[in-house]
Fold each of these.
Amino acid sequence: MTHVLDEAIALEQIGPDRFCGRTTEPYANMIGPYGGITAAVLQNSVIQHPDVLGEPIALTVNFAAAVKYGSFEITARPVRTNRSSQHWVMELSQDGQVAATATAVTAAHRDGWTETESQMPIVPEPHDVATGTRSTAEWLNRYEMRHIGRPGATVADPFYLDGESGESSHMALWTREVPPRPVDYASLTAFCDVYFPRVFVRHGKAVPISTVSMTAYFHATKDELNHHGDDYILGVVHGDAFRRGFYDHVGQLWSRNGTLLATTHQLVYYKA
């Protein structure tokens, strides 16, 4: 049986550098589809392009407008191919108008000196953490979420908002897909956007938000992702600044064995 994520990111090539796809109900958000699945389908346009070189190492998606439910087209073209890296430009459009733009870099990994300076935090094991409540957004049912919480919080579940501004937006979360699916670069892209809006946590209230730009850097090789399988991913996230209607969101994604799989940074509009 085809996994719901694979159905959501499925693309058909309709010409040179051109693909078509369609949004799916399981990843519906409050307005349009979940942003992480839009980023994943843009990533997939590069992954399945016949001219792709190497593996994804960077992706930036700029959300120009809300993606509407229904069909869409993606153009994905390599604009420069070097000896070990390849640079891509993508556009997602509907009804002749651009809804999202993106750039990506793929590369052929080389063996050499390797070090990870960041350290995975010490946290409880996934099954020692309770699952959180659900909201009305359908895409949340695609992920099992076990929130570890933030410093000073009375409850770990971020869907409980007490209306009081806190001192930190830092939070850790164990998550995996429902049903479980082995992690690859497309699903890892979607995982980069799973985490609860930092402004909700810091401000203590649900306010209007919209992701403006999302960047992900992929540190894991394909072999490391194959080794990870469908196990939980630990997301450690925080916001650095909430100013003049925009805030940033910074995150690290770890495997249970301490491998840093990806890092992510977002800029999000908010009204509060």
Note: Residues 35-47 form the longest helix (13 residues).
Amino acid sequence: MFDAETRPYGSFTTAAHPTVRRACVAVGDQVLDVTDLDPVFADGTLDVLLAAGPVVWADMRSTVAAAEGPLVPLADVRMELPFTVSDYVDFYASEHHATNLGRLFRPGTEPLTPNWKHLPIGYHGRAGTVVVSGTPIRRPSGQSKPAGADQPVFGPCARLDLEAELGFVVGTPSALGEPVPTGAFADHVFGVCLVNDWSARDLQAWEYVPLGPFLGKSFATSVSPWVVPLAALEQARVRPPSADTDLLPYLREKEDWGLDIQFEVRLNGHLLTRPPYATTHWSPAQMLAHLTVNGASVRTGDLFASGTVSGPGADQAGSLIELTRAGAEPLTLPDGTTRAWLADGDEVRISAVAAGGIFLGEVAGRVG
């Protein structure tokens, strides 16, 4: 559970008032309603707070730390999507994940593409299908081309996957045409959340050449209901692997924005894998710098994610496609069942703890 120093922000409703949003801060396994504490929370979301900028963010952390009021058990509230998602971009920032997939898809060749260590690769997702933790995940349908088939077929996804990721929530917008340098990362990004970027691997495999992910990714992206401020992660900051490579000037960092975070992924309650975020090659400051270097602007509520977090160990991969070698080596779970891909009824829970014991929450979803 969250300690008193983390003070993550969220939004909730109650059974008595299911349409009335209330802003809150987590305290252990309870929530402190802060809706009436300050006008930035008046609409029951984090939208106004995000737009207010770093000075207000710092002041508000002090204000909520001293705030008093009735605490409501988490079990008695329904957590909602805490902010309006304006845009969504997903990166491919883990070298171990990219290498694992390269070996699967391009055996006998260099697993990383020639551009990979020169720029943070990403794709533009759909803001409208970002959903809060606990939202049921409907298995998508679409085109795929089975091995050996002459023509594609249409039907439900047969290779549904999970992806354990870290998300970054933009607060202060940037101006169109003005890139955001790495040194301005904390001026624009308010905090982090956990992400599961569900993936239909069979749909994705058929559609992604030449323009990349589309329907195989856009059906649902789950996020945790809590946004942990960057200010709570100071002791988790580490040097990212990219700092030791030859980068173009706009990607170089004067401050280190790698993060020492340990993920856990559970399937139906069983621990599957423990991916370490500290091995992620590209830092979020570099992701934001690359996202905007062509003059693209960011808006309040923009969400960008790291892509699958994977480490060097066999038990540190953040997706089933890696853990099962694209389904060729199904996993045997402790209850005796096997999984190559997600089955209907499966529940995925992803949690994370940053250095210093800072709990980042959980993102969960059940395939329906």
Note: The CA atoms of residues 96 and 312 lie 6 Å apart.
